[in-house]
């Protein structure tokens, strides 16, 4: 692997004696890691090495074909680079689990930090996962649906379009688009796109993004800033820029020395740098700043009233969800959406202000008096599994189901069945007697050819 000379020179200067180890580490293969979804995976893992800063993070010895693992499709884990799991650690240093929060993940696709923060917040909190690029925003929405938290709203807005939400968010995560130096060993195309000019443009873009979003941070609120680069202009110097231009205050957190994370202090601002020769992971940088300004309480008003479901329909659907008293159903044309009651009005308010791609959970389509359960609902943590007849599939059958093939079963009962693998829901089938309809979404289906049943490797978890 060859690197641009200007990059080598700068890194030599930055790292001094450490440069040789750094450079050698870039010639070795990157580690592979996953973060478990505590809502969908509760077996204890003893055979895999843990990520020091994330209790649900584990390194894999080699890269499996994730597509051939049904638990991957079910949202039981997220394939996430280990260093970037540090955002979750920072989040936990700021808040305890009981605090209700309004959170924004501004540059969220494909959803690593979003799914992480979603697992750390409580039911009274709401997370807006935003991605400006449309195609990436749809991938983000898919990953959020599979992760299963109902109180994540997916939006597709430019950072400057958040200006109307002044003082709204208690926390904003800005995982900024960057020059990607930390990804060189994982993604060679990042090397080709690198230039000094490009890193300068990145630093200016990061400043623009932060300035655009700063107004929507509540007084006293926190902004977790991160990049996957080693470039000081995009990292610590941008934190200094935030202090000078936005009056941001740096927040330092305790980080055990044995983790190998390098703490950078620059003009009073603190950041945490991950270097691949010091930690098991890729290059990453993160820092927290706080907005210092007078406390102004935030008020909001919802203009539109949602269409409530008929009492009769509510009686049926309340049996479908886990905590019926905490759920509000709405109907839009024939689509029934469930919202966590505690964040419903906030969600409606956000719908007035932003381009919302997903909010709440689509539970069903209503056809006359019948409800057809929706694929999103099967994957949601709101689902009351006990209310549905279940079909538990083997590894191979689950892959056939995910490929949208019809599965053969001896089930006698007609109607909708929840399809599970290792007890984790994958989707629905409709039994019609002598045949069944596979209701897995076409857009999510496995496209690769399945190996022969005998050749299928056992699941790695
Ligand atoms: N946070 C994500 C995760 O953990 O999976 C990774 C985010 S990636 C580092 C940066 C994201 O910023 C990309 O999805 C990119 O499309 C988005 N982006 C690009 N230009 C942007 C801009 N001008 N404003 C906001 N976001 C932008």
Could you walk me through the main structural features you see in this protein, from its secondary elements to its overall organization?
The protein has 461 residues and is of the alpha+beta class. It has three domains: 83-290, Vaccinia Virus protein VP39 (Rossmann fold, 3-Layer(aba) Sandwich), CATH 3.40.50.150; 300-387, Nuclear Transport Factor 2, Chain: A; 388-461, Nuclear Transport Factor 2, Chain: A (Roll). The chain contains 13 helices and 22 strands. It has helices spanning 5-15, 19-25, 70-73, 86-94, 112-120, 134-147, 188-193, 196-214, 236-246, 311-318, 344-353, 375-378, 395-402; strands at residues 32-36, 50-51, 54-60, 77-79, 102-105, 126-130, 152-155, 169-175, 217-227, 248-251, 262-266, 269-274, 284-291, 327-332, 335-340, 356-358, 361-367, 370-373, 390-393, 415-421, 424-431, 436-438. Strands 5, 6, 7, 8, 9, 10, 11, 12, 13 and 16 form a ten-stranded mixed sheet that branches. A four-stranded antiparallel sheet has the order 2-3-1-4. α4 (86-94) packs parallel to α5. The longest helix has 19 residues, at 196-214. The chain is globular. The mean pLDDT is 95. The structure holds S-adenosylmethionine (SAM).
